Amino acid sequence: MSIEISKEICIGCGQCAQICPGTLIRLGDTGKAFISHAERCWGCASCVKECPVQAIAMFLGEDAGGLGGRLTVRRENTLLHWIITMPDGEKQIITLDSRDANKY
Ligand code: SF4
Ligand code: SF4
């Protein structure tokens, strides 16, 4: 499982690099984020949730039931909108309130 960072969308805030528990993300010479050693990414999605402009997408392979889809997250105050985009463009959105994170 790995992520993809869009250089076109990235604004170079560095939040993903700070949050990655494996220190796998860095800012390059252009100030844009990139992942080093993508094979070490274990798909925790922390960077995906942290990016304020949805520049990071996680690949959802068949093993994750995603059949090649991509996952991005849009924050809206305490709400997290988990957006799954399938290869044919179809989208599914799951909204969770981060205040409920420890509820269950
Ligand atoms: S998904 Fe987790 S491990 Fe992978 S790059 Fe993002 S923060 Fe790091
Ligand atoms: S959090 Fe998003 S915008 Fe900020 S550096 Fe990372 S990819 Fe770029």
Automatic annotation (TrEMBL):
InterPro entries tied to this protein: 3Fe4S_ferredoxin (IPR001080), 4Fe4S_Fe-S-bd (IPR017896), 4Fe4S_Fe_S_CS (IPR017900), Fe-S_Ferredoxin (IPR050572)
GO molecular function: 4 iron, 4 sulfur cluster binding; electron transfer activity; iron ion binding
Domain 4Fe-4S ferredoxin-type, residue spans: 1-30, 31-61
Repeat in keyword set: yes
Entry keywords, A to Z: 4Fe-4S, Electron transport, Iron, Iron-sulfur, Metal-binding, Repeat, Transport
Entry keyword 4Fe-4S: yes
A Pfam match: Fer4_21
UniProt xrefs under PANTHER family: ADENYLYLSULFATE REDUCTASE, BETA SUBUNIT (PTHR43687), L-ASPARTATE SEMIALDEHYDE SULFURTRANSFERASE IRON-SULFUR SUBUNIT (PTHR43687:SF6)
Functional note: Ferredoxins are iron-sulfur proteins that transfer electrons in a wide variety of metabolic reactions.
Official protein name in the record: Ferredoxin
Lineage of origin: Bacteria, Bacillati, Bacillota, Clostridia, Lachnospirales
